[in-house]
Amino acid sequence: MSIKLNDSWLRELEAEFAKPYMADLKKFLQEEKQNRRVIYPEGKNIFAAFDHTPFDWVKVVILGQDPYHGAGQAHGLSFSVPYGIKPPPSLQNIYKELEQDIPGFRAPAHGNLTAWADQGVLLLNAVLTVRANTAGSHQNKGWEQFTDMAIRKLSDGREHLVFMLWGNYAKQKAALIDATKHLVLTAAHPSPFSAYNGFFGSHHFSKANNYLTEHGKAPVDWQLPDRQA
Q1: Which of 22, 37, 82, 165 could be joined to 32 by an S-S link, Cβ 3.0–4.6 Å?
Q2: SS3 content of the chain, % helix, strand, coil (to 5)
Q3: Mind telling me the catalytic residues?
């Protein structure tokens, strides 16, 4: 695993790469490849969330658990899929909530959320890799320590960010965030199994924009283009 992290994030997280857990994680990923395991996303996209959304640009954090494990789905941004891949059910439900929450929002035909990331929405999975067709296969190997530190750095080093924590796994990360200087929004996960238990009707997207505006920041344009170049 070669590390090529955005410079702004490297300044915050460089010390992590010298810690024992990171060496163990690197060894684990090497063993996966030696055993001919297919890993998603491909190497160049493992740190895509950080590459698209530098530390100083972050306005909103949407936390996922681990990457999609189907062929062609994962590209390093939580809940997002590349062009040409059908939006998964959770993302379809995110679009449904946006249609109810943001006036004029129209669900695109694709599931690529890069336009959000480029506006300052950190689409961060707690675990950054997964074995093909095996959900959760790279959990508890070290990624969580790395991404927890990223959340802590944002909480400590920035002000007036919005954290969207959906589902019980993500809600546990609230302990890492200083709620006195950031907005922490929690709801059920947008999965079809739980979206009707509090994700629909949560209005997180409008609440985020209201909070950003109140604190002198530009709101997020949640409307995704039909396709970016």
Answers
A1: 37
A2: 40, 10, 50
A3: 66
